[in-house]
Amino acid sequence: MKLLCFLNLFFQRTNHKINIYIYLIKDYNQKVNCGSIYILYTIILSWVTQTGFTQSKLDSIQYLKTVEVIGNSYKEVIPSQKLSGKELEALNSFSVADAIRYFSGIQIKDYGGVGGLKTVDIRSMGTNHMGVFYDGIQLGNAQNGQIDLGKFSLDNIEEISLYNGQKSEIFQSAKDFGSAGTLYIKTRIPHFLKGENTTLVGTYRTGSFGLVNPSILWEQKINKKISSSFNIEFTNATGKYPFRYKKVFQNGIVAWDTTAIRQNGDIQALRIEESLHGYLIQGKWQAKAYFYDSEKGIPGAIVNNIWKRSQRQWDRNFFLQSSFQKRLITAYDLLVNIKYANDWMHYLNPDTTLMYIDNKFQQQEIYASIANKYSISPSNPQPIGFSGILLAKRQNSFYCTYSLYNRNIADTKSPYPIKR
Q1: How do residues 171-199 score in pLDDT, each as one tens digit?
Q2: Could you tell me if 20 and 10 are in contact, meaning their C-beta atoms sit under 8 angstroms apart?
């Protein structure tokens, strides 16, 4: 009879426990050499234990599938600062002038209160050399070259970009290249969820000094390629805030020390915007109408113990503008911008002790530009192109500004008429 020893070692890992099963089959008519079986069992057990722990370490490692992210690499030649989307909402700012305070390297000039003139300066070149573009078309002011950023609310603004120079794109009009610094304001393009055709947003803000600011934003989907946006906003503030007024003589005697209320710092303003957005095959277009009307007081310094100044200013701004961009043929793109603007301003200073001033300023502007781009290498995602620069420089000949400046210093109502 032969001795048949069969060892079957089976291990499984369950809660870090290794179970070993040994089966011995033999001829019961023969004696079994238990010492040999014990040695064989010890060798196999040590090998199984080492293998089991090695596999336990491998099992603790998790293998993840490779994730590939593919995107267009776009590097701007001139770096920019941008605020958009959730960032603008988190700022909780009142106007564009309040939002750009978070940009670095600029100077904000605020000429008093909610209704005061708010301008921006970059590289200390002066606010006259700062170009402000609203949906790709520059805002103009032939009177002093300064754009009041307080006229533009953040209710319908999608992105604000600031460039130290012009933006890093070749496909733009010549006016984009003519400023020491540029500020681009891009209004919101309507976006709708699946199954939705209308978006209605109402906002009501209030604050100190009698500030009331309600606004309504209505976005409508006309069809798959055309949508409209309507925004109306009203601003009212008394501007009456307390301040301390104190005068001390040179000998240290206090002449007066009182708390006064600032007067003539009120504002009433109405802003209405309507825009249409459309998409074409390899193109897009946009049309916008803008209207702004305001009356504001200009508080002055206390001179000759006169606490109230009655300087007033009325502004009325209106413009129509449209932009058309399309790829006509392979590697050739066309950009057309047109605009008509009508601005009116009335300034009144009834103080006859200094000088009676009643100024009226009216500006009419017609602007048109055509930019062309031809890509030398259409297959290159960043083609080397020309046009827009050469042709758009000629668009200055189509740029016409009609200004009527009427300054009436002598007035029959003034007790001190002055002849020019």
Answers
A1: 778 777 777 788 899 998 888 888 888 99
A2: yes
Cα–Cα distance for residue pair 175/152, rounded to 1 Å: 21
The pTM of this model reads: 0.70
Q: Which residue has the tokens 């267009």?
A: 72
End-to-end CA distance of the chain: 142
Rounded alpha-carbon distances, angstroms, from residue 12 to 42, 46, 47, 62, 143: 18, 15, 14, 20, 88
Q: What is the rounded distance in angstroms from the CA atom of residue 94 to the CA atom of residue 82?
A: 17
Buried b (16+ CB within 10 A) or exposed e, 170-180: ebbbbbbbebb
Asked whether residue 193 falls in the same domain as residue 50, the answer is: no
Burial of 83 (0-12, 13-18, 19+ CB in 10 A): buried
> CA 287: distance to chain centroid?
20
Residue 256: pLDDT over 90? no
**346 occurs within a structural domain:** yes
252 and 330, same domain (yes or no) = yes
222-228: long-range contacts (C-beta < 8 A, 24 or more apart)?
225/278, 225/279, 225/280, 226/276, 226/277, 226/278, 226/279, 227/189, 227/190, 227/192, 227/276, 227/277, 227/278, 228/190, 228/274, 228/275, 228/276, 228/277
When computed from its CA atoms, the radius of gyration of the chain, rounded to whole angstroms, is: 38
